[in-house]
Amino acid sequence: MILKNISLFILLLLFILFNSSPVICQVTIKVGGVTCLSGELRSGFIHVPSGQDGPEIQIPITVVNGKKKGPLLALTAGIHGCEYPPVLALQRLKEQLDPANISGTVILVHIVNIPSFLKRTIYYNPHDWKNQNRAFPGNIDGTMTERIAFQITEQVLRQCDYHLDLHCGDGNEDLMTYLYYTETGNSVLDNKTMALATNFGFKTIIHVTADPKTQKASMCANASLFMGKPAITVECGKLGRADEKDIAAIIGGCLNILKHLKMIDGKPNLLFDPIWVKKTTYIRSEHEGIFYPLSQGGSHVQKGELLGYLTDFFGNIIQKAVAPHDGIIMYIIATPPMSKGEPMVKIGSF
Ligand SMILES: [Zn+2]
Fold first, then answer.
1. What is the pLDDT of residue 22?
2. Which domain holds residue 41?
3. How many angstroms is it from 286 CA to the middle of ligand 1?
């Protein structure tokens, strides 16, 4: 009888121990030059070494290391130099994240492509003229864009569990709000990525595929996916602007994901059923010249519709951008300069 009572007591003790929350056993997180203890918020830099094409640079980051145990979520902004709403959204999100109330860790990379941001260049890093979102997982002995990609991969993506790469229309792009769900063929990973895509809270989702067996990551989110971590690319904002509604939408989406991952209290605020874009088509420029858009991001268009045209530098029309199928304009270039081979319009169909 005494033995039975002792057993019951031990069982009761174990029950109390395993059901007492919160579980406080979060570990110290180190990212670049930032060491962040459990329960702390710390800002600092990831150092990218100099090379033949440019000086060393410092990428600004913040680590919010929750008191309670949970996943590590990475948020990256500023991969492209004139995409401002994600950059401003992360500054404000930092003020809203209290490590005392977070389960897990959030790494905020405020501006990945800091040279492009400071020199105000669209698409390309001003030192090597490469696209930061085509350079992952990067190379520490490569050009500046490749060195930045390498440090983000090694310092941030390798230790994260989930990743949101936050973009918008670059300085020349009139873009509608959407995000990418990338299917890899790994069903466990794909289900988790799908859950990120549908819980962010944006209505339009482009479904693309990327095969880690045959492809190089190239894009930042793919670098995470190819390491087995769920990751999505988000697009919200346009034309070098910093509209409040876009900043708010990005913050809302990030908070939805924090709730979805149970890193903060609450349920994602989902206002729409997603619309899936299964096919996208680019109309690219065949010449350099001056582009005249005749439509806008988010407009529904019909096959055969004239969406814009390209002239030479004297005003003679040299190419027409005609919709190859019915669909919606994901983005259209809305400033005059056009280089040869660049997208003039991206059209999605449902
Ligand atoms: Zn971008």
1. 45
2. 29-275
3. 23
